[in-house]
Amino acid sequence: MVDKNMKAGKFLLMSLMSCWAPADAGAQQGTLLLSELLFQPRSGEAEYVELFNPTDSDVDLAAFHIVRVIHDSLGMHYPLPSHVVGSHEYVVLSKDAASVAACYAVHDASHLVECNLPPYPNDGGTVVLSTVDSVVVQWLDYSPSMHSRLLRNKAGVSLERRSFSRDVNDPSNWFSASSVAGYGTPGSENSQSAEYLIEEASFVFESDIVSPDGDGYQDGLTIEYSLDDGALAARCEIYDSRGTVVRRLLNGDLLGTYGAIRWDGLGDGGQRLPHGQYIVAITVYDAAGTRQTVRRAIALLYR
Question: Where are the domains of the chain?
């Protein structure tokens, strides 16, 4: 992953050498933002890129290109066809619009646009949206690690952007589309969309290891939290490597502004769990139903 300073330097070099310059997408009128990406479709199905129009006016898709990136350099431009993207609406780009419509719950087929796209490797790559005169509007470096760790099979699962007010290239701003939504929401509001309720640093894990063998050392895990909003509720669950919930520590409990969550390393029935890796998932809710999940991998060991 290229850090922000390196990215800024890269954009400056592009500007000086190739007349490419970065744009502040949030400041542009008539812009589009990257919203969703399916880079690993199931066999025989099609990739797609979803864009969102955050402005109060219509935008013509023909004012933009999708650009292929090779070794951090902009390469071939893929012109987009003329298509009106309405205010606060989505458009989905794919080589095979019929495939997308057949595989996902598309509520309005007019939001699907068939066009050529660069290849998007399953092991990670880059998506770039530019204007026709080569001004970079959005640059996303994606990787499979941005998916939920609980997914056993990532094929057919899109990555959704959670917040348009957050940096497009922040890995924590992207997450796997919900299974309830069919693992993809092309043309519709993202299933994982949410403004951030908390910073992940609000939850402090004392260790990445739990060793419940009664020797007084790391017999349990304490998660301390400090929040600005005292009206948030939470669910805290422990998942095993197969994605099965083995322990529920909180179930819609009101958190307050500070406190701690404790796991003794045991399952819901008080049973000793097998050693291995587990995921602690803390989902925080507000009164409006906005949610945010913090996840942490924990090793369960016995000495």
Answer: 4-176, 200-300
pLDDT of 134 higher than 70: yes
Query: Are 175 and 150 contacting, i.e. CB atoms less than 8 angstroms apart?
Result: no
Q: Nearest-CA neighbor of 198 among 159, 177, 223, 225? A: 225
The CATH architecture one would assign to domain 200-300 is: Sandwich (2.60)
CATH architecture type of domain 4-176: Sandwich (2.60)
How high is the mean pLDDT of the chain? Answer: 86
Q: How confident is the model at residue 273 (pLDDT cuts 50, 70, 90)?
A: very high
Specify the pLDDT at position 172.
82
Same fold, 4-176 and 200-300: yes
Q: Is 157 within 8 Å of 173 (Cβ atoms)?
A: no
Residue-level pLDDT at 271: 92
